[in-house]
Structure formats: structure tokens, C-alpha cells
Design brief:
Elements lengths: L3 H12 L4 E3 H11 L6 H7 L3 E3 L8
Parallel strand pairs: 1-2
């Protein structure tokens, strides 16, 4: 069985389109897996996936 972190990375990879993923989708995945939202950006940066359509206006 995959750890939550590995499951999250897999879900982020599957949800990303052309190396981009919507902020709302990131939050949805974090909520489903019980992950903290404040670690999403660093994880996606390490995966070379860009957050788009940020709900807070932090990522553009």
C-alpha cells in the first residue's frame, strides 16, 4: 500500500495537465487524503508541477 505522500504524488501526477494543476484540485486531493495544505506547494515544486487558478492569488 502506498503512503499518503506517495498516493498524493500519484494523484497530483494524474491530475496535472501539461505540468499544471488547479489549486482547487490540489486542495481536493489534500482533503481526501487528510494532508496538510501548507505542504502542497513544495511537493508540487519538487515534482515540477505548477499550481494554476490559485484560489488565494498566491500562484500565477
Amino acid at each position: 500500500m502506498l503512503s499518503n505522500d506517495e498516493t498524493a504524488k500519484q494523484r497530483f501526477r494524474e491530475s496535472a495537465v501539461n505540468g499544471r494543476i488547479a489549486c482547487s484540485k490540489c486542495f481536493e486531493i489534500a482533503d481526501e487524503l487528510g494532508l496538510r495544505k501548507d505542504g502542497i506547494a513544495s511537493t508540487l515544486t519538487a515534482m515540477d508541477i505548477k499550481i494554476v487558478q490559485c484560489q488565494l492569488g498566491c500562484f500565477r
